[in-house]
Specification:
Elements: E1 4-6, H1 9-13, E2 21-26, H2 32-45, E3 50-55, H3 75-85, E4 89-91, H4 95-98, H5 118-121, H6 125-140, E5 144-148, H7 152-164, E6 170-174, H8 194-226, H9 231-239, H10 243-246, H11 249-254, H12 260-274, E7 281-290, E8 295-296, E9 303-313, E10 316-326
Parallel strand pairs: 1-4, 2-3, 2-5, 3-4, 5-6
Antiparallel strand pairs: 7-8, 7-9, 9-10
Helix pairs in contact: 2-3, 6-7, 8-12
């Protein structure tokens, strides 16, 4: 389809609108993860709606020593991918268009959630992110906006901002897209050498290890409830590969479903091993958090959670996460 490149909000506002407008916000260097967001937006907006992809490298999101100048700019390729994925418009404003008076003195503050995890590692990052998201929502005037779940803390903060400040827009989260080897798609992956990429696989590997441990424990917990408190219970538990737990069926029967501590330990083991590779993985954080506020969950937690990790491999910093549900007596979501 033909995709129109627009540089100003006035040009965008002058377009005739029939159905709903869906916006996908990016910093460019589009890849299959962005394409999935755009295709999802196209499906929601429908043939009568409009899909707008913003391409803007926001200087407020980069702290001192971060890779603003190094961040890839590939607008021609971005327009092509956006069009192939179903975008009607690529909105690529200049810094002066977004910040006409220079860096804004009045900004959105992310609050306590914005100081945790990514916010602790990158002070001021989420204030800058929310400020530009708020401005782009005003500039593009969408009915809905889509964001990837790979940036789980960002998505949670955008949802909180929209709710707390009464933005009239629907926020849609789209699941993380991964490459065949499990690495979460990111514009920064292109900076990894072949050896660094092998090390970087520990991020998703750690998450999958935690997910597998969680699923096994949830299955064990469900089986323990189903089997009568007899010798048959121990035999059943042993049959699903939990012989140590089967030795103490009473402990299994009263254990907290899913075991957050065990999930963390399984993930940490993979990351510890990656720290000894060449090149090594330098862990920033591993966290198992409540997605409503990104605080660590306790061993008695039930409900939805996020297992999140951030690390550096060489000069490249990567993040990843995976959703889990505790107390469901089933596999991870």
């Amino acid at each position: 389809m033909t995709t129109t490149l627009l540089r100003t909000a006035a040009e965008l506002h002058a377009r005739a609108r029939a159905g709903r407008r869906a916006v996908v916000m990016t910093m460019g260097a589009l890849h299959e993860g962005h394409a999935t967001l755009i295709r999802t937006a196209r499906g929601i907006a429908g043939p009568d709606g409009e899909v707008v992809v913003t391409v803007f490298v926001n200087p407020l999101q980069f702290g001192e020593g971060e890779d603003l100048d190094r961040y890839p700019r590939t607008l021609d390729a971005d327009i092509e991918l956006a069009g192939q994925s179903g975008a009607d418009v690529v909105f690529a404003p200049s810094v002066d268009e977004v910040y006409p008076g220079g860096e804004p003195e009045v900004r959105i503050t992310a609050g306590p959630m914005g100081e945790r995890l990514e916010g602790s590692s990158r002070p001021g990052h989420f204030d800058g992110m929310l400020t530009v998201v708020a401005k782009l929502l005003h500039l593009t005037r969408p009915d809905l906006a889509l964001y990837g779940q790979k940036d789980a803390q960002q998505l949670a903060l955008i949802r909180r901002m929209v709710r707390d400040l009464n933005f009239g827009v629907e926020i849609v989260g789209v699941p993380t897209v991964r490459e065949e080897d499990g690495l979460a798609l990111s514009s920064r992956n292109r900076f990894l050498s072949a050896a660094e990429r092998r090390t970087a696989l520990a991020l998703s590997g750690a998450l999958f290890a935690g997910q597998d441990r969680h699923a096994a424990q949830e299955a064990l917990r469900a089986r323990a409830r189903e089997v009568p408190a007899t010798r048959a219970r121990a035999e059943a538990l042993s049959a699903i590969g939990e012989s140590r737990a089967a030795a103490d069926t009473h402990a299994v029967a009263t254990a907290v479903p899913g075991g957050p501590a065990a999930v963390r330990a399984a993930a940490r083991q993979v990351l510890d091993e990656a720290a000894r590779l060449d090149p090594p993985l330098a862990l920033d954080y591993l966290a198992l958090v409540d997605p409503s506020d990104f605080t660590e969950i306790g061993d008695d937690f039930t409900g939805d959670a996020v297992l999140a990790v951030a690390a550096r491999v060489g000069a490249t910093r990567l993040i990843d996460n995976i959703p889990l549900t505790f107390g469901s007596f089933g596999a991870a979501s």
